[in-house]
């Protein structure tokens, strides 16, 4: 049979309601993961774990969050660790692929050109497109994970005296965890011991940033390095990413410079490296090389803002997404300047896109505020640590001041719901909203970054 | 000379740039107030107060905030108290009148009918309108303040054994402080001692709500009691006010019911009264009959949300205003339902109005977040009390967990700026934005509540 791309819409496969498919797929993965983690073989020592712990970690892994209530390395067996690694890979791949497909579908329906596939004349997403996207995401994933695994493995082997097999395993585990923005680490203090080692921190940071840019951006960067030729989505994502990295690095470094429990303990070069690393991780990887429990409350607040904004669309990052945030800034800027239309670079932003960004941002604020109030009520813990934890769960970051394990079970279940809603809510909400937009008469070239 | 209303635009009087006039007027009032409070005669005991204390309390009074760093009754002399009372009256009257005039100007320019004055054929605001508005605001203010002063004065005289003159003074002071949503009280624990006395709490609550509805709504309610005939602005303001009062009462009462330091110490009827009172005061009067320093952090967070939303436009309340908040909800609702146009009741909300509401809300969030980070950095105090304090200052509420006096001077100056920006920012920003809107061809009847 010749492999001609079929042009059927994905209705038969369930993509007639893409959001439902995504939610069902992720819920299924969480359930399977919970069942696997409940097996006694997943745990070290005697007997299996309890239901809430299994559910929490399966959700945290599938949603590539990285919040944990137990120490990954000592609590889970090698089998358990591999289950978690598998869930991370499924969750990260699933997010990237589904969000890319949904973005493609939205672009097609709205008549916007896209670089993910060449053809733009159709309004539906065919099986050929699905194949292209899945293969592309897979190739990208394997490429980044392999390179980072090799670098990390060599470093662990050569500089930290790990046995070759163990070093390779550590390299693979943390490369998968970083590219998928999962933030699970096999040391109880995350990457704190490597705070001043650029050979560990930089590959992980690059991998995290790449995964967080999102598949459409990675694809376009590979084909076209001249910014002037980039699509609106890529321009906005890259601009916002660079700006947030610079601002975040300056903010964290300046704030913690003299804190003896964090940057103050390091030499100046180490402070810069660790400041940069802690600016990368809120978006939204969740590794840490400094102790968030010892940070200034101001740093925690600023980090919460970074976490809430998150990373790029159709990648492994969470949050409301940098394009959503930047688009709202463009709207405000247009309003303050008194312009009737909102322009971003050379494109006009439609009112509907602006409304969708607004809807995602405000519903996300509402979710965070409601969950913070609920967890404070349940746990009676202090607002600043709860707010940080809640934003971390919602934006699927995984950073914590260390309270996760001490939260009462109902509060942990709130976090489970938040991780799930935070992982899928913005993506599915925006695609659901955008797919209902009717096509309109062609006026000016309209632009529309992926949102959510 | 006959007093024919002139139809000249207010350009010669400075209203060509209304925002500048408002800002200059308020800054002038703050400076005069600071100078008066610096006089030795304003203080009890020997010598005058310091510059920061005088500036802080003049700003707090003119912006009708009510945050204090000293105990009003014992620190200031009778002269000082009267200065503060005068500043409150100037600030409250100024806010109500200026915001009403700006709202009138915006409505005229946008070709919307308004009930503040009968004529709608002109696009400018003439001296006759100014006179109408100023007289209307003055009459409304005197009416509410007089009635409440009499009720409170009688109560203090008959039930609390105050001398008649003293009781009258207390009545006048707290009626002015409540209608203008200022929240200054002459007891160091605010109104805590009257927590279960409906004869004190209810008149103050009614006065606060009335002042917070805003002049255009009060005017319309006086002329027309049938909701079906109300303007969009009045409908939205009344709906949001009632909803927030009910939700706030339930929230505070449920949350604090068993807190032995707050509601738990009262009998059930007293708990309901105090729960209601603490739901009225965040919007944005700032009296309290319970100790906010002893409240659950969840209650503080929920109260912060209420404070941020604030009260009605063109009144004495602060915050982003209930119409701004409700309009954003309508936008989200329309988006979630997939409707192209946003409708509120029977009116279509323009995209520009939605964008203006969004701009006010997000810039306000940014101001609160930035100030919270700054004050946490400066003071090293805990996030939850700082956030509460910052929102209280920005929304000109005046509630506090009790940290105001303990804040370092730079942090107090941040609050001074916040009070000023929070008082004038939303009003002037929206009017500046809206006045630049060009008039458009008449399509459907368009609606536009006052925003900010
Ligand atoms: K993560
Ligand atoms: K107030």
From TrEMBL, chains A, B:
Signal peptide limits: none
Pfam families linked: TrkH
Highest taxon above the source species: Bacteria
Alphabetical UniProt keywords: Cell membrane, Ion transport, Membrane, Transmembrane, Transmembrane helix, Transport
Transmembrane regions: 20-39, 51-70, 82-106, 141-160, 166-187, 199-218, 238-254, 305-333, 353-378, 411-435
Location within or outside the cell: Cell membrane
InterPro entries the record matches: Cat_transpt
Membrane topology: Multi-pass membrane protein
PANTHER family: KTR SYSTEM POTASSIUM UPTAKE PROTEIN B, TRK SYSTEM POTASSIUM UPTAKE PROTEIN TRKG-RELATED
Full protein name: Ktr system potassium uptake protein B
Primary gene name: ktrB
